[in-house]
Amino acid sequence: MSVPSRKGVALVTGASSGIGAGYAQRLAQRGYDLLLVARDEQRLNALAARLGSETGVKVEVLRADLTDKADLLRVEQRLRSDDSISLLVNNAGIAVKGTTLETDLDAFEQMVQLNVVALTRLAIAAGTRFGAAAGGTLINIASVLALAPELFNGPYNATKAYVLSLTQSLQNELVPLGVRVQAVLPGATRTEIWERAGLDVDGFPASMVMETMEMVDAALAGLDLGENVTIPALPDVADWEAFAAARLKLMPNLSLSQAAKRYKSAGEDAA
């Protein structure tokens, strides 16, 4: 019988392949027991058997479709009630192809359910318990498209901008309680998300596409460094710090009792 890890259990969503499977492997190697969540139970079982054999950690499989409310609530309840879970990787997500105006609205709705609704419920469930325990780690997988809406379609980009905004808000609430909260913003990464969306990742310039384990290792290094936002491909962290500082500089003037003078002068000119 496996002895429970002192680090606790890492729950990873979308764990059957790609980034989720990469996190599962690296977290197992770091000594976490695992709770792997995805729709494909056969692949989850194969991954669980391999990681259990290679690392000796305890690996549990929980088959769930997070776009199904009943399945989502089962995972959410597990996060709320299982004190052994000390880390959540909120990774499950899908993309849709086409321009914003070409988007299949049914596919868009399903994407919002997974990328936004499910991620939010699980993040809040984990965050609530981690905050009460004064410890734990929440990792939300967003995308660089949260910062570059011109590069892909609006619906997908918007879901990832939401993830970044949610994570930054949760950092404000949870970090003072002793919880680590990280947003990870990958660029194009070689995973099955592209094929499932009907896209060919090999159509991108090779210089833009990062291998999965390269991305996961960089993201975990960012976590170790204490980064709140990790952009694995960004060469100079000072560029992100300058971007974040520029945003904060706006804050004192975003909500005032008077409109900016330029708008008043524009109205006078029109008159």
TrEMBL record:
Belongs to the short-chain dehydrogenases/reductases (SDR) family. Gene3D superfamilies: NAD(P)-binding Rossmann-like Domain. CDD domains: SDR_c (cd05233). SUPFAM superfamilies: NAD(P)-binding Rossmann-fold domains. GO terms for molecular function: oxidoreductase activity. It comes from Pseudomonas kuykendallii. Keywords: Oxidoreductase. This is SDR family oxidoreductase. It comes from the Bacteria.
